[in-house]
Amino acid sequence: MNKREFIKLAGLAGIAALANPSATWAATAPADNKSLLALKPPFVLPPLPYATDALEPNIDKLTMEIHHGKHHATYVTNLNNAVKEGAFAGLSLGDILGKVTATDAAVRNNAGGHYNHSLFWTLLAPGKSSPSAELQQAINSAFGSQEAFQTKFGDAAKGVFGSGWAWLIVQKGGKLAITSTPNQDNPLMTNLAKDPGTPILGLDVWEHAYYLKHQNKRPDYIAAFWKVVNWNTVNELYAEAMKK
Ligand code: MN3
Hints:
- The chain has helices at residues 3-13, 15-19, 33-38, 61-82, 93-99, 105-122, 133-143, 146-158, 211-214, 218-227, 231-243, and strands at residues 164-170, 176-182, 198-204.
- By secondary structure, it is mainly alpha-helical.
- Strands 2-1-3 form a 3-stranded antiparallel beta sheet, sandwiched between helices.
- A hairpin with a 5-residue loop joins strand 1 and strand 2 (176-182).
- The model is unreliable at 1-26 (pLDDT under 50).
């Protein structure tokens, strides 16, 4: 990292990071499920782990600014309001996701929105990365090849009617599977998900994630997504899920 890039990152992560350069990344959303799910109220909007223009031209600056700074921020605000009192008060993000049902609309939408986006930002990064040997082997064994996996994941993303997410999950027993969820649901919502599991890769296919650059062309956005997937995070999430 050169000096200019460091200053840009440090600026995002805040003053604390300047005093301790190794703290720069810690100030962003945790890139592991254990820490993410242990978060307690009041929930806060994590800074992006890169500049808003870092994913250009694949994901544009304005989309990132609005998606992170407005959409995600709103989920955080609404989640804090929804869990101020009642059955979800004081629970960790993971406990909320595991407990929520169809009758808890505000908690469902905003706890999902906060977890999904916090994870999503860490799943993206500029620059090249690739699946670890262990993950590649699991992908090949579950789907045939990396190409076949990406086609099947892309089909799941294209197949979401309206707004939702496509996921690569580790199921109970350690098997990889592709699934999708509507709106801000996710596979950690065991009372709601058709395929429960631990997310290790997710793709937001809400129009707010791509409309400014790709308009109605969701397949173009999915193709752009593969160019900015941060496989380093996916590898860590996979290793973490397999340790359970
Ligand atoms: Mn979104």
